[in-house]
Amino acid sequence: MARPARPVDPGSEHTLVLAAAEAFARDGYQAASLNEILAAAEWAKSSLYHYFDSKKGLHDHVVSVLRARLGDGVKLPDLTTLTAAGFWPAMAQLLNELRRTASEHPETRYLGIMYHRDDSADPDSALQRMRTDVVNWLSRAVHRGIALGLVRRDISPDLVVELTVAVLDVLDRWAVDNALHAPGGRDAGRLSLALVQSLIAEPV
Question: Which stretches in the chain have pLDDT values below 70?
Answer without folding.
Answer: 1-11, 121, 180-189
